[in-house]
């Protein structure tokens, strides 16, 4: 079977979980003196077009980044972005993981393999772990994501169908069209179906029909797609003298996120790895994003709260409705993709409101607490204002769900734009190259449509806001007033995402 990376580049986005800033804080919680993201070395295996690595290199100019990727066509796309930029801290190289010489690569504080481990044959998986062990600095961290059993078996049923339906078709585009036709046929056939398994397939089909072609091709039609039990992964990791630290989705480590019945049923499993394995069985988990370190590192298994309260914080959330800061009535905040998060304590509500106002600026925990307490007092919630420990506890829960982000170093940017707004050269260049998303300062993918892409490209610091609005009138849809409002809205969005300088 073939893969299609040269024919259809993988849509590589920034993955916030893989960012050294995120890995650094996770490691600190478990007692590892991780390297400062501002001054570190990062290796990405299977870096595709560099969509993950290039923005990291841009925002961390004193750190060094190396990407290794088999597909020359994908590397060329990334190099086209890097070449005109004053970026001297990144190398995107064509190479085969199998051929890597760890001694020549040197040591790295962070090693990333996102979307690679399950999609390569066993010999390459072995090499990924060997390179990880040999190239990690003593307190370095590695991030490896992979498809997981038992959950992936359910998705695998659609892979079986698509491999079958496209077995005689050659070429990426033709395979994609045959796959879509097969999905649509099954979708029509399942109208009105009531069995649980059929409902599951209906949902998956809807998701796949809305996904980017590269996802369908590379995930469902790839030559290799292997899933493992967590315990199998751990055996392999240990054989390579590495150890498991945690998941980037930290909340999944805690059985308090399971039902009471599940907690009771798993309650007598003492071995932590077995317990985590059983939680996968309960959740029917299909994917993991695991963080590893060298086996000789001493880990603090209980999360250190004092370390947690030394971080700086950010959150990209919007309040839904109104927040009363004098009672514990639940209040919902919305993530950028409109997922609802509920908080109850007045201090947490006030702290999130503060982060909403100042994003992307990052106060430290003390500033956050002091500000929240004052706000709660002013709102008539005096009896809640001193409950720092309760804020710590709800805040940790929000952090573990990745609703708030912790940072080792502050970001002092305020969400403002100047008289003649100017976007970073990287963002303008990515937009000009037709990339469908750019990375925010928090390393999140910010999707661009034609209108926002054109506006971003025009933000070279020479045009006033009125001139930008005039320019947008020539291509934008809607009334003059709507276009002007849209330009201002987008400038706010760009500023909040740290794209303006
Ligand atoms: C599913 S894509 C993931 C790309 C990217 N890391 C992401 O998550 O968006 C897997 C990538 O690994 C690359 N790859 C596969 N085998 C490789 C090997 N032996 N050496 C280097 N890269 C490899 C593929 O070319 C492809 O770009």
TrEMBL record:
<feature type="domain" description="Methyltransferase type 12">
    <location>
        <begin position="43"/>
        <end position="141"/>
    </location>
</feature>
<feature type="domain" description="PKMT C-terminal winged helix">
    <location>
        <begin position="419"/>
        <end position="470"/>
    </location>
</feature>
<dbReference type="InterPro" id="IPR029063">
    <property type="entry name" value="SAM-dependent_MTases_sf"/>
</dbReference>
<protein>
    <recommendedName>
        <fullName>Methyltransferase regulatory domain-containing protein</fullName>
    </recommendedName>
</protein>
<dbReference type="Pfam" id="PF21782">
    <property type="entry name" value="WHD_PKMT"/>
</dbReference>
<dbReference type="InterPro" id="IPR018773">
    <property type="entry name" value="MeTrfase_reg_dom_prd"/>
</dbReference>
<dbReference type="InterPro" id="IPR050723">
    <property type="entry name" value="CFA/CMAS"/>
</dbReference>
<dbReference type="Pfam" id="PF10119">
    <property type="entry name" value="MethyTransf_Reg"/>
</dbReference>
<feature type="domain" description="Methyltransferase regulatory">
    <location>
        <begin position="213"/>
        <end position="294"/>
    </location>
</feature>
<dbReference type="Pfam" id="PF08242">
    <property type="entry name" value="Methyltransf_12"/>
</dbReference>
<dbReference type="InterPro" id="IPR048976">
    <property type="entry name" value="WHD_PKMT"/>
</dbReference>
<dbReference type="InterPro" id="IPR041881">
    <property type="entry name" value="PqqD_sf"/>
</dbReference>
<dbReference type="InterPro" id="IPR013217">
    <property type="entry name" value="Methyltransf_12"/>
</dbReference>
């Amino acid at each position: 079977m073939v893969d299609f990376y040269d024919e259809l580049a993988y849509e590589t986005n920034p993955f916030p979980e893989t960012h050294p800033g995120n890995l650094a804080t996770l490691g600190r919680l478990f007692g590892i003196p991780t390297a400062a993201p501002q001054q570190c070395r990062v290796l990405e295996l299977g870096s595709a077009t560099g969509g993950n690595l290039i923005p990291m290199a841009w925002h961390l100019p004193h750190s060094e980044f190396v990407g290794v990727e088999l597909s020359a066509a994908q590397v060329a796309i990334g190099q086209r972005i890097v070449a005109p930029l004053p970026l001297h801290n990144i190398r995107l190289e064509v190479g085969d993981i199998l051929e890597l010489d760890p001694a020549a690569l040197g040591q790295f504080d962070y090693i990333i393999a996102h979307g690679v481990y399950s999609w390569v044959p066993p010999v390459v998986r072995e090499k990924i772990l060997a390179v990880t062990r040999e190239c990690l600095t003593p307190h370095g961290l590695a991030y490896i994501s992979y498809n997981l059993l038992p959950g992936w078996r359910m998705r695998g049923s659609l892979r079986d169908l698509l491999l079958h339906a496209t077995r005689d078709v050659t070429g990426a585009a033709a395979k994609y069209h045959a796959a879509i036709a097969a999905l649509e046929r099954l979708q029509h056939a399942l109208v009105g179906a009531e069995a649980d398994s059929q409902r599951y397939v209906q949902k998956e089909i809807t998701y796949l029909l809305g996904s980017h072609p590269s996802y369908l091709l590379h995930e469902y039609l790839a030559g290799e797609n292997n899933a493992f039990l967590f315990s199998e992964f751990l055996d392999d990791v240990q054989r390579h003298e590495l150890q498991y630290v945690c998941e980037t989705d930290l909340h999944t480590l805690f059985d308090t996120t399971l039902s009471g019945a599940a907690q009771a049923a798993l309650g007598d499993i003492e071995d932590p790895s077995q317990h985590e394995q059983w939680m996968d069985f309960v959740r029917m988990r299909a994917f993991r994003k695991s963080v590893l370190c060298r086996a000789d590192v001493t880990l603090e298994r209980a999360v250190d709260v004092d370390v947690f309260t030394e971080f700086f914080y950010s959150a990209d959330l919007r309040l839904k409705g109104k927040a009363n800061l004098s009672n514990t009535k639940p209040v919902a905040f919305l993530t950028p993709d409109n997922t609802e998060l509920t908080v109850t304590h007045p201090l947490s509500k006030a702290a999130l409101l503060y982060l909403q106002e100042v994003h992307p600026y990052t106060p430290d925990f003390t500033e956050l607490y002091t500000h929240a307490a004052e706000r709660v007092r002013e709102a008539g919630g005096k009896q809640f204002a001193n409950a720092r420990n309760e804020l710590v506890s709800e805040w940790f829960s929000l952090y573990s769900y990745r609703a708030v982000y912790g940072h080792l170093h502050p970001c002092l940017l305020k969400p403002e734009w100047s008289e003649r707004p100017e976007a970073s050269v990287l963002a303008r260049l990515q937009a000009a190259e037709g990339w469908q998303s750019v990375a925010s300062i928090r390393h999140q993918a910010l999707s661009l449509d034609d209108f926002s892409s054109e506006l971003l490209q025009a933000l070279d610091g020479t045009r006033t806001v009125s001139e930008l609005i005039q320019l947008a009138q020539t291509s934008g849809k809607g009334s003059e007033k709507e276009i002007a409002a849209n330009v201002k809205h987008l400038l706010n969005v760009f500023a909040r995402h740290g794209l303006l300088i």
